Amino acid sequence: MEDLATLGFIATTLGATWRLATPLIFAAIGEVFSERAGVLNIGLEGVMLMGAFFGFAAAFTSGSIMLGLLAAIAAGLAMGLLFAVFTITVKADQIVVGAAINLIGLGLTAFLFRTYFVSTGKGVEIARPIAVPWLVDLPLVGEALFRQNALVYSTVLVALLAVFVLYKTSFGLTLRAVGEHPKAVDVAGRSVALYRYGAVLICCSLTAFGGAFLTLGHSNQFVEGITSGRGFIALAVVVFARWSPTGAFFVALLFGLFYSLQLQLQAQPGLLVPYQLFQALPYIMTILALMLVRNKGDTPAMLGVPFRKS
To answer: Which CATH architecture has domain 20-117+132-292?
Structure first.
């Protein structure tokens, strides 16, 4: 019986790991694009909140998950455009603008939710699990890993597509050059600002999509502060992953494991450890991860530095 309970614990933890890592994967891969282009966007938390709220609002109003996801992407693009105008065109401090984006996301979503939705008490229909033929029948991991919804599965596609775009296309090569040697890109006749705008918009659309997952693929309701610091954790994931899309995918899974463990351990009977310690586990591991990453050799050379034409 104890062996069965242990196997059940492992299977449940594995299934929850991928699911809970999904918003981190989207946000972290998006931030890889932005930072590779030399733009540090610490406003991921606010963008993710906007995606979560507007995805929920559109799905609640229309009854369509697809429209909810499109609304979330549109909200992310709007926030990305706002961020890009101030940081790339106006050349304001990226940290200050990112902090402002976080405050806007937190305040605006709370205001709109309290105004229009807090009294309804109703949720939305979330994306349904899809069983992958044959794989779902694998022992132990089959049901856990291969009975997820389409948003969870799409993380693999997004990671592979990000690798292809960044390393196998002219756009990706130029985007990475913008983060390392923007003057060389400018001399070659390409617009540094245009590539940075593109990177920021990709970042914010993916981040908002990750936020929408919280309300349309994980829970069926929006609550204030639903992201619970995931945007900040995604920033740590990017650094720990050495600005690599595949690294961001697997490191996000590691943090998803911490999220899963803190939920599973809280549910275990007979534990004398305060539950608050388990709740803090993902954030403690974030701090430890940043402490372990000391080599800055992989950091884009012009990260956080506005480009000024001479």
So the answer is: Orthogonal Bundle (1.10)
What secondary structure letter does DSSP report for 294?
-
User: Is the CA virtual torsion 158, 162, 163, 164 positive or negative?
Assistant: positive
In angstroms, rounded to a whole number, what is the distance separating the alpha carbons of residues 26 and 206? 5
Q: What is the pLDDT of residues 256-278, one digit of tens each?
A: 988 888 877 766 666 666 667 77
Burial class (CB in 10 A: 0-12, 13-18, 19+), 112: middle
pLDDT in tens, 87-138: 999 999 999 999 999 999 999 999 999 999 887 777 898 999 999 998 888 8
In three-state secondary structure terms, 299 is coil
SS3 43: coil
Which residues, listed in sequence order, are joined to residue 130 by a DSSP beta bridge?
148
CA 7/CA 13 separation, integer angstroms: 10
pTM recorded for the entire structure: 0.94
Beta bridge partners of 131: 147
Burial of 11 (0-12, 13-18, 19+ CB in 10 A): middle
Other CB atoms within 10 A of residue 16 CB:
18
Q: Where are the domains positioned within the chain?
A: 20-117+132-292
Dist. CA 288–CA 178, nearest whole Å: 31
